[in-house]
Design a protein that fits this description.
The complex is a heterodimer. By secondary structure, chain A is of the alpha/beta class. Chain A has 11 helices and 14 strands. Chain A has 2 domains: 230 residues, P-loop containing nucleotide triphosphate hydrolases (Rossmann fold, 3-Layer(aba) Sandwich); 71 residues, Alpha-Beta Plaits. In chain A, strands 6-7-8-3-9-10 form a 6-stranded mixed beta sheet, sandwiched between helices. In chain A, strands 2-1-4-5 form a 4-stranded antiparallel beta sheet. A 4-stranded antiparallel beta sheet of chain A has the order 12-13-11-14, with helices on one face. In chain A, helix 3 crosses helix 4 and helix 4 packs antiparallel against helix 5. The model of chain A has no long low-confidence stretch (mean pLDDT 89). Chain B is mostly helical. Chain B has one domain. Chain B starts with 7 loop residues before the first helix and ends in a 6-residue tail after the last helix. Classes of the chains: A alpha/beta, B mainly alpha. Chains A and B meet through helix 3 and helix 4 of A and helix 1, helix 4 and helix 10 of B.
């Protein structure tokens, strides 16, 4: 029997209201989410990207029962996150990360023991399970030290340990590798992959594009409270114009040159940006037939012209999509 | 899935354990739980020793109650405020255990710590001044003391809800603290207060419980005209009312904070 999606949302909206002014008589409404539709399959690693303030954390908190949506349907593991929150909570995990969110004056092991009890991890397994997750996030030698002595990276690992302590079926990770050194970040990504191998569905938000590209089967880009694209990384590359990116640099281009480049077959998008004293044109190319010489032939009046090619990165895709949404 | 479902008893014990660990890790709690009660007790003795042993007991009971209340209020309400400050309110609310049980666990621990403070007052005063403080009915007194703790806990839970509701709950706490000290008769008899303040006194369960405690401990005590059993009925009724309010308030407060999305503000 095939399972339904682990996460299913339709037209999710969230408005924050706050009062300002001397007598708090001015009502300010901020629309954080403006109709988010999303389905995440069971056992998938799904990535949510978006600029600061796009609504990623708001959406993650709604999915993990910490925030009630203003309207829309939100189901996790087939349960409504508002009506069935109490039944759902033991089956999901949330890692918000950061410096806060831990009891600093007690040890990492005591922090985990407290939450193991609140989650109802069976008594006969509790201490073994705590040791398991401590080992899994590589905090073994620091497990009995007070959290206040921890570095930011160690706290991040402890957040992760707490998130997986009770064996959730769906794990929400909000920036899980922020603050980690490269080695720890790599180990964390390895841990995330191993969780998926255990059957856990992962919903991940991150600012690190390579991380999303490395881990996620599918990615959505959230901008200004709306999902502007969702696909595999390859699908997103196609969406913004192709796998190939050609960069052209010179001391300025006239409008005629840019227009000629736009008309070359296979060039789907041109973004221009200042690059020191030079101007850089970034071309998204969806065909393998276009050679760099074809580009050079259109730009013959430049003494110093650089033309190079690279693969379109997820960062390129992301920036294109967010910029497109903003304009 | 490793976890099954939460157990209320286990959650309460876990919260109490955390409170003990936090208590031991932070020496500031020695002031409200041990040092302040002893100072109150010694000062009371010095002030009222000439008025006879029962009057000393009257004053010491009030002093002990003040420190117990301080411990309950700070330990329960303040701890919830700390949850906001530390950012632990969010992960705690994501756990399946309802937050009401988290607060209840804290209240139980803090009232027990307050009880310890009260006991230490009696012992220190007895040792310092060379003779024990008399009690009319020691066994009943102990039972009644436990009941007083329950009435304190009932009010403490309602105050803790304020801390979940808003980061500005410290204001409510500070106002509530003085209303409590004066209104419940800890500092001086309620009958000395102006008539208009009586409703405030009577809606606080410890007012009734403290009067009942004094009826029990002090022979010939003249408190409220309805006597010991009237006090008991009042204490039971108001405690039940507070516990009922706490249950409803917590459900609503939890809903409100999930709607407002300000759990991480402090």
């Amino acid at each position: 029997m095939s399972k339904g999606p682990a996460i299913h949302t339709r037209d999710v909206r969230r408005v924050f209201e706050s009062r300002k002014g001397f007598f708090f008589n001015e009502l300010v409404r901020t629309e954080a989410l403006r109709g988010v539709d999303l389905d995440v399959a069971d056992g998938e690693i799904f990535g949510l990207l978006g600029p600061n303030g796009a609504g990623k954390t708001t959406f993650t908190k709604i999915l993990s029962t910490l925030l009630i949506p203003t309207s829309g349907t939100v189901e996790v593991l087939g349960m409504d996150v508002v009506k069935d929150a109490v039944r759902l909570r033991p089956r999901i995990g949330l890692v918000l990360g950061g410096e806060r969110g831990l009891y600093n004056r007690i040890s990492a092991r005591e922090n985990l023991r407290y939450f193991a009890d609140l989650y109802g991890v069976p008594m006969e397994r509790r201490d073994r399970r705590i040791q398991e997750v401590i080992d899994r996030v590589d905090l073994t030698s620091a497990a009995d030290r007070r959290v206040e002595e921890f570095s930011r990276g160690m706290k991040q690992k402890l957040h992760l340990a707490r998130g997986i302590l009770h064996g959730p079926e769906v794990l929400f990770l909000d920036e899980p590798t922020i603050g980690l050194d490269p080695k720890s970040a790599r180990e964390t990504r390895k841990l995330i992959r191993s969780l998926v191998a255990d059957g856990v569905t992962i919903f991940l938000t991150t600012h690190y594009m390579f991380e999303a590209e490395e881990l996620c089967e599918r990615i959505a880009v959230l901008s200004r409270g709306r999902i502007v694209a969702r696909d595999t990384v390859a699908g997103l590359r196609r969406l913004v114009g192709g796998d190939r990116t050609i960069e052209v640099e010179a001391y300025g281009f006239d409008e005629g040159e840019v227009a000629r480049l736009k008309h070359i077959a296979g060039v789907s998008r041109i973004v221009s940006e200042e690059f020191g004293p030079k101007l850089r044109l970034t071309l998204r190319v969806g065909t393998t037939d276009l050679s760099l010489d074809t580009i050079r032939n259109q730009l013959t009046n430049h003494a110093e012209l650089t033309v190079r090619e690279r693969r379109t990165s997820l960062e390129d895709v992301y920036l294109d999509l967010v910029e497109e949404e903003a304009t | 899935m490793v976890a099954r479902s939460y157990s209320r008893g286990r959650s309460l014990l876990a919260v109490m354990r955390l409170a003990v660990l936090t208590f031991l890790a932070d020496p500031q709690w020695l002031v409200p739980s041990l040092i302040a009660p002893v100072v109150f007790g010694l000062v009371s003795y010095e002030l009222f020793a000439g008025s006879g042993p029962w009057f000393v007991l009257y004053a010491i009971l009030g002093a002990g109650m003040m420190s117990m209340w301080g411990q309950t209020l700070y330990g329960s309400g303040w701890a919830t405020g700390q949850d906001r400050h530390l950012g632990t309110l969010e992960p705690t609310l994501t756990a399946p255990t309802p937050y009401l049980y988290i607060v209840l666990g804290r209240v139980i621990w803090n009232t027990l710590a307050g009880l310890l403070g009260g006991a230490i007052v009696f012992v220190v005063v007895a040792i310092t001044y060379g003779h024990p403080i008399p009690l009319a009915n020691p066994l009943l007194f102990l039972l009644m003391f436990a009941f007083v703790i329950t009435t304190l806990a009932a009010v403490g839970v309602v105050f803790a809800a304020a801390y979940v509701y808003t980061r500005y709950a410290g204001f409510v706490q500070n106002v509530g603290e003085f209303a409590f000290y004066i209104g419940t008769g800890c500092m001086f008899p309620v009958v000395l207060l102006p008539f208009w303040s009586n409703p405030v006194s009577l809606v606080l369960p410890p007012t009734w419980a403290l009067d009942a405690l004094r009826y029990l401990a002090i022979p010939g005590y003249q408190g409220f005209s309805w006597g010991f059993w009237g006090d008991m009925a009042g204490a039971l009724g108001t405690t039940a009312l507070y516990l009922g309010i706490a249950g409803t308030v917590f459900r609503r407060v939890e809903r409100h904070v999930l709607e407002a999305g300000d759990l991480n503000d402090w």
